[in-house]
């Protein structure tokens, strides 16, 4: 049986008085990719923001391995091995690809169980980033910028990688290319993926959690999800 790496256990999160996540639980197992699905506004990004410490939940637990993350600051959560690629790819547009990767590098020892990533390791997964090494990041295509954003997160030596809608705004051909490199990447690291593109999510997912208005309406393997897809379709956006 796969061992749990990132565990989100019955969290409740609020924006002011607005209760957005209701007893949400999920487990990212070691070596697996979990796709977190749901319509616009279902609470997927909020769930990621809860994990990385931007919106600490009011109740529940978040653990990586044995370590409790609930209540920890975002820097500490990152140091304990949670890498985050937010929606909209935060890269430094005026720095080169090389510089973007190097400034993200963590010099301290990786968290227990994490790999130390070098720029060369990242470029082996994303050969485009080798070809474009000297180019300023702002001049890259959308797909390349997304790869760079993922590469920057890898340079922090995460144990688990959180990707928030990596395909957003990319042309279908580029999404296919991104899907191929993410398929390679998932051999190296456990991933929590938020994705509106169901085709991409199904190509990559081992496990699926489906949210509707901040509540889990399905949790299981991709195969179980696909079997129940006709009845679950109403909880998905039209993509
Ligand atoms: N900063 C905020 N302040 C108040 N409410 C917010 C804030 N951010 C999100 N919400 C609300 O929280 C709920 C969940 O939003 P969230 O962004 O997590 O959904 P999502 O599933 O990621 O959707 P999307 O695909 O549109 O990003 C929505 O009702 C949204 O309007």
From TrEMBL:
SMART domains, alphabetized: AAA (SM00382)
Record flagged with keyword ATP-binding: yes
Location of the ABC transporter domain: 6-238
SUPFAM superfamilies assigned to the protein according to its UniProt record, in alphabetical order: P-loop containing nucleoside triphosphate hydrolases
Alphabetical list of InterPro entries matching this protein: AAA+_ATPase, ABC_transporter-like_ATP-bd, ABC_transporter-like_CS, BCAA_Transport_ATP-bd_LivF, P-loop_NTPase
Keywords (A to Z) from UniProt: Amino-acid transport, ATP-binding, Cell membrane, Membrane, Nucleotide-binding, Transport
GO MF term set: ATP binding
Similarity comment: family membership: Belongs to the ABC transporter superfamily.
Protein name: ABC transporter ATP-binding protein
UniProt organism field: Ramlibacter alkalitolerans
Upper classification of the organism: Bacteria, Pseudomonadati, Pseudomonadota, Betaproteobacteria, Burkholderiales
């Amino acid at each position: 049986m796969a061992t749990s790496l990132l565990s989100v256990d019955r969290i409740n999160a609020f924006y002011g008085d607005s209760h957005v996540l209701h007893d949400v639980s999920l487990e990212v197992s070691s070596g697996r990719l979990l796709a977190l699905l749901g319509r616009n506004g279902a609470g997927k990004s909020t769930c990621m923001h809860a994990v990385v410490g931007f919106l600490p939940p009011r109740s529940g637990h978040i653990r990586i391995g044995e370590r409790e993350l609930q209540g920890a600051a975002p820097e500490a959560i990152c140091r304990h091995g949670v890498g985050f690629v937010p929606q909209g790819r935060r890269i430094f547009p005026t720095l080169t690809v090389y510089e973007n990767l190097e400034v993200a590098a963590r010099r301290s020892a990786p968290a227990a169980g994490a790999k130390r990533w070098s720029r060369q390791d990242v470029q082996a997964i994303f050969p485009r980033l080798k070809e474009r090494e000297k180019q300023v990041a702002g001049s890259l295509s959308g797909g390349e910028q997304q790869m760079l954003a993922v590469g920057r997160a890898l340079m922090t030596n995460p144990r688990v990688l959180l990707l928030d809608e990596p395909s957003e705004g990319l042309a279908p051909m580029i999404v296919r290319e991104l899907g191929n490199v993410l398929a390679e990447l998932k051999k190296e690291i456990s991933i929590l993926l938020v994705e509106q593109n169901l085709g991409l999510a199904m190509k990559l997912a081992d496990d699926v959690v489906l949210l509707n208005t901040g509540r889990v309406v399905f949790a299981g393997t991709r195969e179980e999800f696909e079997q129940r897809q006709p009845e679950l379709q109403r909880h998905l956006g039209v993509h």
